[in-house]
Amino acid sequence: MIQDSDIIEQFDRDGAAVLRQAVSADWVEKLRAAAEEAFAHPSQFGRSHTPEGAAGGEFRVDRFIWLDHPVFRDFVLEGGLAALAAKVLGSERINFFYDHLFVKEPGSVEATPWHNDLPYWPIRGSQICSFWLALDQVSERSGGLRYVRGSHKWNTLFQPVAASDKDRHEWEGSTFQPLPDIDGNPDAYELLSWDLEPGDILIHHGLTVHGAFGNSTVDRRRRGLATRWTGDDVIYDPRPGTMGLPVDPGLVAGQPLDSALFPRMIGPAPVAG
């Protein structure tokens, strides 16, 4: 799937890259329809980050959709992204971590605050990446992701920032340092962003600082599906202030992420304990 080593080099150097037309139009259409079904029947993690009664469009999210929706499960298992993750991470083993669905409707004002992902997650390691698949045309105005170039090399876990009061409780107990004031010091940071077409994928590291504006367009939805992938050095780390899981993965701290919840996609079959 990767035809140009420059993409891997950019990921390693900058912490983020774009892969054009990585997913077929057929998959995009299937996932669009499945996304509407998923938002109509959300999981325990489905929520709106838009205050009740607020004017404008809605910002909604859900995660671990693949467990209940066949199209998402088929995409995870058969869509070819595990092989892409192995190349990007330079890893012999790849586990699927989870999927995360986002939609910012036209006129939704809620920004995605600056953050890096790893502090939110009950895992530890360096071989971690996300693939953010555009299901619509995306621009900075419609809520496209922005990245702080090279921030993954800071090797710093920052205090989780709640997208709204509805998920603030999940991050209680986290004690990492606060993020620097990126917006207040624009000359100190180089930002990366890309306009996207459906089927394009943004690739970013688990430590890359990123965020997004709200969707200020009047007629363009911003639907995205993020899938998260882990490599050889990643272990389970259920510390306080990390996201809840749908089921107990049956792991103890320090174990590799081999479980039914985090299936091994590439590499030798895990040894039964």
TrEMBL record:
GO terms for molecular function: 2-oxoglutarate-dependent dioxygenase activity; iron ion binding. SUPFAM superfamilies: Clavaminate synthase-like. Keywords: Dioxygenase, Oxidoreductase. The keyword Protein biosynthesis does not apply. The keyword Oxidoreductase applies. It comes from the Bacteria. InterPro entries: Phytyl_CoA_dOase-like. This is Ectoine hydroxylase-related dioxygenase, phytanoyl-CoA dioxygenase (PhyH) family. It comes from Rhizorhabdus histidinilytica.
